[in-house]
Design goal:
globular, about 15% strand, about 300 residues, single chain, 6-stranded mixed β-sheet, alpha/beta, 2-enoyl-CoA Hydratase, Chain A, domain 1, 9 strands
Length: about 300
């Protein structure tokens, strides 16, 4: 997971305004929009809960065949909102460090969203004009089809302060392959989408300004297919994947994420949580980039 660097949402910000749902029964296409541009569409826990509810709504709507995931302002999502992330494991009324059983319980619930999204009964398309980081990258990989801008930045930069074993390892290996997965997680760098074009790791590669139109065109093509045919195909894909590379997807993801957020840092290692507590989020990001070297390399 990763985050945008901007300040926290205003107190009382309504998650209903940050994750929007639009359904068009005539075209059979639904659109879910991450609408938090001040934070580059970073997602807080309640945003993920609302995303799940929107998907549940779409799943039972027989008039919808395709769902597009997209972000306001040309950014797909920069991942988890770190100004909220470290409170995810807290137990109300508890001041002690969260127990490992608490971490596992919370992460199991969070990873269930990806598990259900991978097996979603409607066709899913991710519209990625630019940044798809952390949780955003996982959603782009979990979608059936993904349209990516050639200048988009993709990666798991939070590996630089949470360690290189986080997120859905089975999904990464299955979609990206072992070489790309290890390189992105062990370096934490952000890669340009063009690096993956020759290997056809995503469905479409177009110029950033053309991503919305290309996504809509692809969605319209899929929406012409028989609705039951899409669902049957999705279930067939899910069963085959579950019997091979993605068989341990849900379990490994929450186990290793829970362990990975409980690291011990050595004196010469960068500790984002400590730096953030001492100087704030922006200063912690500045020190992270100073420690690792800024940019995508």
């Amino acid at each position: 997971m990763t985050t945008a660097e901007s300040a926290s949402d205003p107190v009382g910000s309504d998650p209903g305004d940050r994750v929007l749902l639009d359904k068009d029964h005539e075209t059979h296409i639904a659109r879910i929009t991450f609408n938090n541009p001040a934070k580059k569409n970073a997602l807080a826990p309640e945003d993920c809960d609302l995303l799940t509810r929107h998907l549940d709504d779409i799943a039972t709507d027989d008039a919808i065949k395709v769902v597009i995931l997209r972000g306001t302002g040309g950014t797909f999502s920069t991942g988890v909102d770190l100004s909220r992330a470290y409170g995810w494991y807290d137990t109300p009324g508890e001041t002690r460090r969260p127990s490992q059983r608490r971490r596992l319980s919370v992460d199991r619930r969070g990873q269930r969203m990806f598990h259900e999204f991978i097996g979603f009964p409607k066709a899913t398309i991710a519209q990625v004009e630019s940044y798809a980081l952390g949780l955003g990258l996982e959603l782009a990989l979990a979608a059936d089809l993904t349209v990516v801008g050639r200048n988009a930045k993709l990666g798991m930069p939070a590996a630089r302060f949470l360690g290189p074993v986080l997120g859905n390892i089975a999904l990464f290996l299955h979609r990206l392959g072992p070489v790309v997965t290890r390189e992105l997680l062990l370096t934490g760098r952000m890669a340009d989408a063009t690096e993956f074009e020759s290997a056809r790791l995503f469905t479409r590669f177009v110029e950033g300004v053309d991503v919305p139109a290309a996504t809509e065109e692809l969605a319209a093509q899929v929406a012409k297919m028989p609705a039951d045919g899409i669902t049957i195909a999705k279930e067939a894909y899910r069963l085959v994947e579950a019997g091979s590379a993605l068989g341990l997807e849900e379990t490994t993801s929450y186990l290793f994420h829970s362990y990975g957020t409980n690291l011990r840092f050595e004196p010469d290692e960068f500790n984002f949580v400590k730096e953030r507590a001492a100087g704030g989020t922006s200063e912690a990001f500045r020190k992270r980039d100073e420690f690792y070297g800024n940019g995508s390399s």
